[in-house]
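Let us practice reading a record.
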Amino acid sequence: MKNKIYYVMDTMCGWCYGFSDVITKIHEKYKDKYDFEIIPGGMWVGDDVKKMDTHLGEFIKTNNARIETLTGVYFGEAYNNVLESGHRVLDSFPGSKAVALLQESNRNMAFTFLKKIQEAFFINGEDMNDITVYTKIAESFGISKEAFEKRFISQELSEEVFEYFKKAQLLGAHSFPTVLLEKGNKRTIIAQGYSNFEELDKILFRE
């Protein structure tokens, strides 16, 4: 039985977007050695859902400047327009459902699915409350619109996502992104916040 890597993240988390190339490269290099599981953490759900306003938009833009400098990713003009609009509702739940659904459809492609979701938001400024954003991504990977939508709106999937949120807490992921290594019955946080590829690669290579 393989050891396991848990990646706890949120689709609305800018630092997770900044980390996306790193974790995708880690998955590509180590997918034959470790089992990988993406855990949606539920950053902005329920009472924590955000409504964009000027103050929040400025805070996020300041944070994003740090992310761009440190990680090399960029935030698209369409997304920056969202930060200035003052109207968008920021809810992690739809993206969390999409990650869970796409991962169960094809676990080996889960990190590629995730990057497409992040790009839809952080580059293209899409409304991530709109199911059609996710169906288009699913269709690009050969999943039918009808099958995706039926599963996406199901109560069963919602319940599974709430279990993911609970699991994130049990794993000790109090901020995003968090990467954990599970060996036997022992779990160790090997990254919390941004780490570069070399740092993570060095840890996993010697395990």
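A brief commentary: The chain is about 55% helix and 15% strand.
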